[in-house]
Amino acid sequence: MTTPGSRPIDRRRVLQGLAAAPAAGLVAARPGLFGAGRAGAQDGPVRFGVSGPFSGNSAEYGRIWQQAMTIAVEEINGGDGVAGRQLEVVYEDTQSTPQQAVPVAQKFVGDPTIVAELGDFASPASMAASPIYERGKLVQFGFTNSHPDFTKGGEYMFSTTLSQVQDAAFLAQTAFENFGGKQAVLYRNTDWGKVTQELYVAALAELGGEAVAVENYLEAERDFRSLLAAVRDAQPEVVTLIAYYTDGALLAQQAESVDLAAQLVASGSCNSPQFIELGGESVNGVVTTTVFFPGAPRPEAEPFVAAYRERYDQDPDSFAALAYDGVKILAWAANEGGAEREAIQRTLVEGTEIPSIVYGPFRFAEDRRVENAEMVPIQVEEGQFVAFGG
């Protein structure tokens, strides 16, 4: 899983590289002492923990996070820092699995110098760790966690991505209004995939459409031709892919091999440069959705987009923007209310003009998700994402 100028993430190399770059505020995770540390040390750096997939099947998302967070940390430390101190980001690799996310949560909660946490990538991993963060009064900032129950795990769970309820409804509406109501759904057989599929089919039915075929596949599956042939035979106008970029790209390629001519739409998890690189010409025309589009960024986002392009020679996707935003939002909270665990949580709850490059100034609603957040449709055209005009 590589992009131009990059190489696959190796966990040992990542952590060694981070440990060698303390000036940038990026350090390897160190074992914490078990027991609830309620506040960070008052001298030394302010430290945020990051729990995420820096190896394994979702490592590309972790690489994108790290790239964006590096820019955020360097900008913060090049200015006034956080509460007059330097910021360090401590990375722990979980491969975004519940089994690995739980001990990472225990490490972070047990380390009193960690005053907030970002991650994990997948909602099941985050939700498995939520009780630990809640007991430790450590903000769990799940900026990619779309499961509708994630922020119900406690008062310390926050998310800046839209919930699956909102995401599925918007994707269904986009597909229905532009391509037709006779649809098929192919979904990744995970907790995330099942919930999204159910919400999508329900939203489609409410619009007056019909799911004429619903098929699932395993995470490790790579030959989808029999599933795609069954979908083709149902003669849908639209095929919706509830997939990650890896399987989404393969599905698009193999759809051609079985002469599936329906319009392809995909969940926002396919909004990645890797989706285009892996899928090639087969993904041209695919429509997906996003909360952030670098082709038409908010004024607040323009410096980040320019910095990301200059440094990495590619556009930032929504995962990069949300990762950058997450670090900046937590730094803002620590500056505004104090760089302690409970103070950060309280400031996020009470904030009314929280700065964001994704949404502009916002506040968290009672469910600790962004109030009045919006999405936009985008489409792959000639090897890049462009605004979708319908």
Automatic annotation (TrEMBL):
Limits of the Leucine-binding protein domain: 45-381
Top-level taxon of origin: Bacteria
Matches recorded under InterPro entries: BCAA_transport (IPR051010), Leu-bd (IPR028081), Leu_Ile_Val-bd (IPR000709), Peripla_BP_I (IPR028082), TAT_signal (IPR006311)
BP GO annotations: amino acid transport
Keywords per UniProt: Amino-acid transport, Signal, Transport
PROSITE patterns hit by this protein: TAT
Record bears the keyword Signal: yes
Family: Belongs to the leucine-binding protein family.
Protein name: Branched-chain amino acid ABC transporter, amino acid-binding protein
